Amino acid sequence: MMRFDIVTIFPEVVEPYLGTSILKRAQEKKLAKMAAHDLRKWTKDKHRTVDDSPYGGGPGMVMMVDPIYRAVKALKAKRSSLNARKTRVLLTSAAGRPFDQRRAKYYASRYDRLIIICGRYEGVDHRIAQHVADEEVSVGPYVLTGGELPALTIVDAVTRLIPGVIKSQSLEEESFSFEGAAKAQDGSHAGEYPQYTRPELYSPKKGTIWRVPKVLLSGNHAKIKEWRDEHRR
Question: Among 1.10.3470, 1.10.357, 1.10.1270, 1.10.1040, what is the CATH number of 168-230?
Fold first, then answer.
């Protein structure tokens, strides 16, 4: 079983997704365990403060080092009871290492537990990246309001790679598509192929018909494979 712990000031944003679809089934099958933890639980003042103004001036607020350090320390203390041999602490950050399918495979194969710290406001005290997190991770070259969406992206991508969560045939297809797309630097079709389902003919307005390619209706698996290979994007 793989464990995911998401540290956030908005657990109510994270929890619904963790309890839906494939992530829900992974937990029901005892293949994964997931939890969102309210960072404010580890604050010391009555206002449950998690941020403060930046040294040196500047706009916005910065997430404080102490609550995050205390949260990660407390979660790590539960390590033995979770039977987690290898734990990786991630900090979501626009300046972090790019997250991709290869990184997802690395986490799924090398670690039993991921603790993911969700940044907010103008950023996180850099001492967290220096002394608490094992690495900073970015899900794309853009800035988001917070780290909750990146955290869920990481959990989703890694969970799908846990043996038994997804049918092996589906994973093989995805692996082929991903690797082919990554190699297709010349613009050739080496990624995912187009997919269709019922109805065979769809008319969004009078005089217009969108058709399913006839070869996909032929039942000729060799021809279908040839067509899909030619139309990979």
Answer: 1.10.1270
